[in-house]
Amino acid sequence: MLISIFTSRVLLEKLGVDDFGIYNVVGGVAVLFAFFSSSLTNASQRFLTIELGRSDLKKANIVFNQHLIVYLLIAGGIFFFAETVGLWFVYNKLVIPPDRLFAAVCVYHFTVISLCLTLLGIVFNSCIIAHEAMDVFSFLGIFQGVAKLGVVYLLTISLTDKLITYGFLMLMVTLLVQVFYMLYCFKRYEECKLRWVWNKAVLKETCTLVGWNMIGTAVYAINDSGVNILMNLFFGSVVNAARALSGQVSGAVGSFSSNFYTSVQPPLIKAYASGDCSYMMKLFYNSSKYSFYLLWIICLPVMFSINELLSIWLTEVPEYVDVFTIWILLYSMVTTLNNPIWTISLAVGKLKWYILIGSGVFLLVFPISYAVLRLGYSPVSVFMIMVAVRSVYLIVVLRIISSYIPLTYRGYMNGVVYPILKSTVLSTVVAAPLYYVMPTTVIGTFSYCFLTAFTTIVCISMVGVTAGERAIVRDFLKNKLCKR
Hints:
The chain is mainly alpha-helical. The chain has 2 domains: 1-233, no CATH class; 236-465, no CATH class. Helices cover 85% and strands 0% of the residues. It has helices at 2-32, 37-53, 57-92, 101-130, 134-157, 162-188, 200-235, 237-273, 277-304, 306-313, 321-336, 338-348, 352-362, 365-374, 380-401, 409-437, 442-463, 467-483. Helix 3 packs antiparallel against helix 4, helix 11 packs parallel to helix 15 and helix 14 runs antiparallel to helix 15 (380-401). The longest helix has 37 residues, at 237-273. The radius of gyration is 23 Å and the shape is globular. It starts with a helix and ends with a helix. It comes from Bacteroides muris. It is a multi-pass membrane protein. This is Lipopolysaccharide biosynthesis protein. Its main location: membrane. The chain crosses the membrane at residues 20-40, 68-89, 101-124, 136-157, 163-186, 290-314, 320-341, 353-373, 379-401, 413-436, 442-468.
């Protein structure tokens, strides 16, 4: 997180606001051609985890090879369309200064190649997560962070076009990560043995899951990359830069919660596969709470002291970055509650109504955003719409998933919502007056963030967890301290 925040600051300084915005909007166009990559990730993780949970290595090997072959075909298709239709869009539709068009096109090519490499690595990444090898997952996360730091350093001493150099070096980082995934899986996991497979039953199951999932990810891509393009069309690349910077903050902060949930996803699917509904529901409620808490511990001090933190972080703070960041963090907190619901739906495998109804609600973000921007509203209104629609979406998908598991609104309110509400209200009441008494110096700002995070943890331990959960944490810490 620290490396990500630091590199974003240096990157903005070295690239400039316009080039930083160009990099993000051009990357957004490329991502549109791989909007279903998360669908493939979900499918591979789901099927590999199910088979490993059943200890069926032969079937896991069939799934592994069939998915790898399919991803090779998909990567080839994406490369073709991205380098024809997508390239036309970059040349003819995006608002890019003429003198930066060549650099933007180079970055676009690098991004397309990076996307294809990432697609091929999905099955290897999914295998590592299915085996719950979180040490490897953490190692690669740290490597990517350090590598990005190295990229930014090379950017500071580069004598060539910095935007082109940055795009190429990021492609090299992606290549190294994907090669490591492949070599590690080939060496460690028995099911990762290459052979030609064309299994119609696996293909049918996978295509059904991916097909429904693709609708949802297409909607997500429209809302994310589409809204980014809308902002470019209405406000230019400077607002894209502001959105990208706020997204950097949100992404860095959200890594605590998302990485925690990555480790929870395999046992949640395995619990469903083994028919252990009691453990599944316990894990469902607890993972919902704790992923939100991890995000809230960081978000609360950041939202209160956002202006001070941005002035420390950035040499020049573009307009809207502060308010964009606050709204994106709020959006992230609502979104994190959906992760366990989505995992359960994947485990069940019945996505039809979840996708049709849920995506229908979520799709409202793009047309409503377009309408309010046409009416002349501020770009901030887009984020308000995203938070509101995402909240409605959460309520709708809860109702849908309750048809397949023993879930009720009352149970969810008691197990997740009420503890979260009590924790957030109490910690906010403590954090608000503390903000106004702390000095706005660098030391004062960091002291406030530390104290607020600490008091938030205390508030969560008081009202956000059960007595039994407190006892488990207390015993765990006691055992760790005694060993030392």
